Every structure is written in C-alpha cells, then in structure tokens.
Amino acid sequence: MKLTALVLGTMTAGLFAFTAIDTGSIKGTVSPADGAVQAWALSASDTLKAPINNGAFSIDNVKPGDYRLIIEAKPPYKNQAKEGVSVKDGAPTDVGEIKLEK
To answer: What burial class does residue 37 get, using C-beta atoms within 10 Å of its C-beta: 0-12 exposed, 13-18 middle, 19+ buried?
Structure first.
C-alpha cells in the first residue's frame, strides 16, 4: 500500500513538473488570393508553415516570440516578407492583408 502511494505521488509530481507553454497563431490574408502558395514563420529556433487557401492562412501552434513572416508567391508574383511579427502567449496575431507585387 505504501509503495503504491509512493509511486502514485511520484507520478503526480512528475506531471506537474512540466509547464505548458500557451501557443498562439499568426493569421492573415493575401491578395490576389490565387497568387500565393504558403506562409512561413521563421524565428531563431522555429520554422513553421501553413498553406494559403482562398487567400487566407493561419499558422498554428506558434511559440511566443518574434517572427519573420514570408509569403511564398507563385510567378509572376514575388515573395513578400514582414519583419517583427510578435506572438504572445495563447493569443492570435493578425497581420492583416499582404499584397503581392509582380
């Protein structure tokens, strides 16, 4: 009985030793809607991507921090970048509309 309580207590303490990081997201739109393929979020420690569907994207499970957002464009459009996209704990970051240039 004492051994069971000790094992159970140790397992419970182990579960609380890990603190969860609330992740956020980066979302926005691209115009023209059919001019882009993917959205990339780059930081010193992470590289994340998401497809662009009907001109909209949402990169989920983004750790808090500052990111460089890159919109990968289809020819004849050029890739677009946005610096200093800041993600907070558990909050969505809306970058608004990104216009592609030829």
So the answer is: middle
Domain count, the chain: 1
- pTM for the model stands at 0.78
Range of the domain at 48: 23-93
Q: Which residues of the chain have pLDDT under 50?
A: 3, 5-8, 10, 12-13, 15-17
Residue 1 lies in a domain: no
| 3-class SS string, the chain | CHHHHHHHHHHHHHHHHCCCCCCEEEEEEEECCCCEEEEEEECCCCEEEEECECCEEEEEEECCEEEEEEEEECCCCCCEEEEEEEECCCCEEEEEEEECCC
In a domain, 17, yes or no: no
User: In which residue are the tokens 């930081």 written?
Assistant: 43
